[in-house]
Amino acid sequence: MTPVRVVTLALTLALAAALTACGVRPTGVVTGADPATGLTRGLRLYYVDGTGLRGVSRPDSGLRDLPGVIKMLGEGPNKAEREAGLTNLVEIGEIDVTARGDRVTYRSPGAFFDSDRDRLPNGQLVCTLARAHSYLSSKDEARRIRPDDVQVTLDNGERRFGPYRCSQFLDG
């Protein structure tokens, strides 16, 4: 065997050994941390189940404005969502919603927004409007607003309640 072949063979064997024995030992199953929580992307409507508010996705909603999301909310959960225990507690009357910057105001003359009994329907409105406002603003990079930054005021014609952030209602 020529010296060149010996050197080539030695280098080949050394390289093969290095590639097959990299020093990493096998391990058992490694678990991760808890799953991510908080608001996700896209349009979501908020309904109520036995434990509080639950957001449901409406990926192909065709939403164009905030009054439209109130109408969608008023339609209630779909059949599968109802079978899963979701319900709508919001009574939709006159729809008057305005937004400026990260602020949204929902006006509903004669509505009850102030009692403990109204916490869940208020949360449905606040979280749905916050998500919808963020969703609509995301179509314009210059005015993109995060759902967590949206503040919603509820106005019953006699008194204003809030401003609220969705996180105030998601304490489950």
TrEMBL record:
Residues 1-23 form the signal peptide. Keywords: Signal. This is GerMN domain-containing protein. It comes from Streptomyces spectabilis. The lineage of its organism: Bacteria, Bacillati, Actinomycetota, Actinomycetes, Kitasatosporales.
